[in-house]
Amino acid sequence: MARELKYADKATQAMIKRAAEENIQTVWDRWDAQQPQCGFGTLGLCCRHCSMGPCRIDPFGNGPAVGVCGATADTIAARHLVRMIAAGAAAHSDHGRDIAHTLLAIGQNPDGDYQIKDVEKLKTIAEQVYGIKTADKDLRQIALEVAHAALHEFGQQEGYLKMAEMAPAPRVKLWKELGIMPRSVDREVVETMHRTHIGVDADYKNVIKQGLRTALADGWGGSMIGTELSDVIFSLPNPLQTRANLGVLKKDWVNVVVHGHEPTLSDIIAIVSKDEELTKKCVAKGAKGINLSGICCTANEIMMRHGIPLAGSYMQQELAIMTGVVDMMVVDVQCVWPGLEKTAKCFHTKLVTTSPKAKMPGFDHVEFHEDKAVVTATQILERAIDNFPNRNGHKEYIPEISQGVVAGFTTESVFKFLGGTYRSTYRPLNDAIISGRLRGAAGVIGCSNPNVEFEEGHLKIVKELLANDVLIVSTGCNSITCAKHGLMTPEAAFQYAGQGLQEICRAVGIPPVLHMGACLDNSRILRVLANIVAEGGLGTDLADLPVAGAAPEWMSEKAVCIGFYFVASGAYTVIGKPLPMMGAPALHKYLTEEIEAETGGKWVFEENPVEAAHKMLRHIDRKRKALKLKPMMYPQPFKPEE
Amino acid sequence: MSRKITCHIERCLGCHTCELACAIAHSTVAAARPRGGEANADPDLAVAIAAAGEKPGYRIHVEHFGPQAIPLSCQHCEEAACVLACPTGAVHRNASGKPVLVEEERCIGCSMCVQACPFGVMAMRPGGKVAFKCDLCIARLAKNLPPACVSSCPTHALAVEDEARDNKQKRQAAVQRLMAAQTAGSAEVR
């Protein structure tokens, strides 16, 4: 049964129809097959942490209220939740660690395949974060020292994370008072696993406290190291134009789609794919050359640095293969479905795993190591070229749909724009908020999930906020949705934005939704917020800012971790479907109400996207009022409270 | 023709999903959000457990015998002990083959039906004063939907019994076994 997917882009609609006609299973079919999903799991009332269990708490109060060990619903749900945080933090931070290792490799072997692309940023990180003197040192030495300092953050046994010390001073002070200042990346993950072992931490608030610290160790630690060092190695993105959606695949070209998260391999593939020798090989096989495109966050990484087009988001990974023109899909880690194998079997597409951490049945495995980056990338691309003649002509179908997009904003570059090339500053942004031209800013981020209408939540929240003069920063798969639907073009401002936001977009020439990268790059949003505070005029702490965050279609454990580091950083954080803890009443009240008195942030669950946007606007209004900012310059469709 | 809920016990994994679905389908949440926007869908579980008012209770119970889980609910017996025991006619069936129901206004809460039921699936409403049992989800059946426990079962252990169809299947299986035995027997003789 094909779904209608009435909010999805036209290419997805066309492909889902085709899937039904060809009787090819998709993620939506597999989701349907899983219904009904277990109510105990959905409510967070199932515990599998020891083999006295599995235990279930009866949510209607007819059966057991505690597990075999005596753990209550609140304890069980809290333990499960923080394990999700630990898994999310581990995923993002391990990605960050790999990037730090790449920097180390550059320091150790300056003739390798990677180079320092952004010397300035390396020096800034060295001096400002790690206190490493850079004057009179050669680049290689600085790279070595920064890499060692960054890697030290993962396993250090004393002190606090240096990256986290970059947060505004009142925030760092608060974290230390609350006992949630992260000490090291790996330690917090390990401690979370320890505390949630049978018979350790059973006080749900204390469990969550460790969850917050683990999340911070990612957001202001592992993830931030990943983002910052990626900029150093792969270059600091600058706004550029490219295209998004399945229409970027080309019939007469060897289509290679990269999918996953880490830029280490995909960045090299992006460079090697332009190699003349390989182009000649393509021509020999009857193709015009290599057409590289991306899926999921790998796509975000190489789009923002190389302008490589986006083939689609997380939910489109199978649909890309169904075009019949993808000669190879190269994957690394995170958000890659093992189910791709079944789809690929219906076509000629070769699937290749590259990370020693992620092998999949039915995928070829070409292991990637930094010291042989170019050689491996070339090998992989050669295999793709060899696969081009195996295409089955009558199965080809490319929806001729793609959308122009301006992508590649960063903590640094957004505001070079706002302040002008010569005077890079956040002043104009702060002034716009203070004067009431902008109501505030919002981060709309996160995955997509077949448990909601695909793209409805992302689009409705973003459009409602834009209409009310809220500037949007976007990462992950939300940014791919926004890109496909034309929200990341400067013209979108005139169609969707309120008058104040329109004026800013017109003056500076930016889209009203700013693409800030992959899901790892949510740490950029944290830095943006810190810079807004530092610029002055909008309070002294992150929690003072008239900002809010949302992940309407969240799916992964990484998203749970991101949400928690935003809540810990004082942000009002809205998601659609609730966290798996609705069966734990005290924990629910704590996370959605009481925690605000501690961190300044809190969780909000709202499945109606327009209502979610309105809740964010109300929060932004409360913060504006507390800061005694000027009334809004132009009339607002969703009126501020008197 | 009588309708009953049957169970292929070998398929039951003891997940208790039927119990939750039963409670949701009988919960007091009038204003509950329909799941997935479908008109006939049940209220959301998170909404149902948080709803004010009378708790819905379970009309189906997952029991166990050793490691084997077995869901049990009213068998809607033809010669129902609960109907016979009821002094007021509150526990009744409208016609032969129809489900056994409780007319709450007539129930005096004597619990004679509870004592009479040989399966232990007749109870008093949790926190209430009247008899309480499986109504075969007549509201759902009227909309052509199977009972909540049946449609929620992830392994299809629960089903609505169709005597004619099920017996036909059983006879077919029996015939096949007989034929196989006969073939094997005649081969031996030769």
Describe this structure in words.
The model of chain A has no long low-confidence stretch (mean pLDDT about 95). Chain A is globular, with a radius of gyration of 24 Å. Chain A starts with 9 loop residues before the first helix and ends in a 16-residue tail after the last helix. Chain A contains 26 helices and 16 strands. Chain A has about 650 residues and is of the alpha/beta class. Chain B is an alpha+beta fold and about 190 residues long. Chain B has a two-stranded antiparallel sheet with strand order 1-8. Chain B has a two-stranded antiparallel sheet with strand order 2-3. Chain B has a two-stranded antiparallel sheet with strand order 4-5. Chain B is globular, with a radius of gyration of 20 Å. At the A-B interface, helix 3 of A face helix 1 and helix 2 of B.
Question: How many extended strands of chain B?
Answer: 8
What is the strand arrangement across the widest sheet of chain B?
1-8
The percentage helix of chain A is: 40-55%
Strand content of chain A: 5-15%
Largest sheet of chain B: 2 strands, antiparallel
**pLDDT under 50 segments of chain A (min length 5)?**
none
**Rg of chain B computed from alpha carbons, rounded to a whole number of angstroms:** 20 Å
Structural class of chain B, by secondary structure, is alpha+beta
What is the count of helical runs of chain A?
26
Main pleated sheet of chain A: 6 strands, parallel
End-to-end separation of chain A in angstroms reads: 49 Å
Structural class of chain A: alpha/beta
Mean pLDDT of chain B: 86
Strand proportion of chain B, as a percent range, falls in 15-25%
Largest interface: A-B, 18 and 21 residues
Distance between the termini of chain B: 47 Å
Q: What is the H/E string of chain B?
A: EHHEEHEEHEEHHEH
